Amino acid sequence: MTQPYTSATESHEASMLSRKFGQEIVNYFSSSPLNRVSFLRSNTAFLRAALPRSKFLLLRDLEPLAASKTTLAWVGYETVRTLVGSPFDTEQEEFLRGYDSRVEIPTLVFLGIDEGVVGGGQGSGDGERFEFEGEGGKYVGRPCFALDVTDKGSLGEECRKVQEEAVEGAEGREFRKVKLDLSLAPPDAAIFAQARSLLDWNNRNQFCSACGARTVSTNAGTKRTCPPSDKALQKNPEDPPFERPPCVSRKGIHNIAFPRTDPTVIMAIINSTGDKVLLGRQRRWPKDFYSTLAGFCEPAESVEDAVRRETWEESGVHVGRVVIHSTQPWPYPASLMMGAIGEARPDGEGIVLKHDPELEDAQWVEFGQVRRALEGNTGTPEVEVEGAAEGQLRLPPSTAIAHQLLLAVVNGFHLAKP
Q: Where does the record place the region Disordered (predicted)?
């Protein structure tokens, strides 16, 4: 039986940092059990050897194949072989020189190595181990990939075949919409977050942001490259590859073709006397549902400054001291939520909603009311809470960092330690 999500971590009581700051908070969607071995993503020899020994997480329209409400489902190479082929048989430079934009390539992303060899199921070869000897040592486990099998383009028919084979004869398997219930077990949720973010980024970056030409996925799905040539533009098949115009993304050090993560602040703002917390409600939420405030960081802005700016813009409240609490990856599409606790200035606690129309309402709510809601009236805005009375405060579930921030303040995070 899968245990409910908790932010508790393994004990680090002997650590100096734990004794001073307390145990680390591990938020939902974080702490993947996979070793990402990011330095092997460009190692063609490793990828070529790993592919037929790998297990694959399939995503359709960015929704994962799941074995149940709490667990992902994996398939083996034989299930995807016809669709995927052998993409790593050619060295990357040679592949780029022979690029043909008319040929559609499935999006395949290397996630890492499952060193514990857990998870699997139908066709995944559960329990198999793979070894690769590199300059840094031996890497042992089960390689894991994510594969987009969305029915689209020239690969649509083959994607449908993979979808059908993946669920055939496996009771309970389905491509599951996981955003609304957030019921995946934490390790599986972290793997899904990585897979979804990278596949979504690949889908959104089909063209070079520097020159506008079509790009191709490289580094096992973790980079988009603007190829120097394109066979589709040759007048005659016998001619040398058509040379594309020069592009800045092919020269020197740059970061325009790598996955992006959007820094986002989310904050529990307490009043100056430390007994109330600021909560807000967006127009699209049910009238009893409230959460902490949040917003995107802007260029050349610290996390602390973003907390102060976003709080004032959305609620009119002026914030003084800000302390970082914990962080959470949020794969919709690729945010990093940086959770903070902030304290309002005594002369700046008045609420003004006219700066920014994002919030329909904001209130100072007493800790006691927040604590009661956290104990039994939580969930996503889209899902009704069974037994909840009208007018009763509703808050985000424990899988949301907003919940962990509120839990921290009602439990005295801001109070001086004895």
A: 219-246
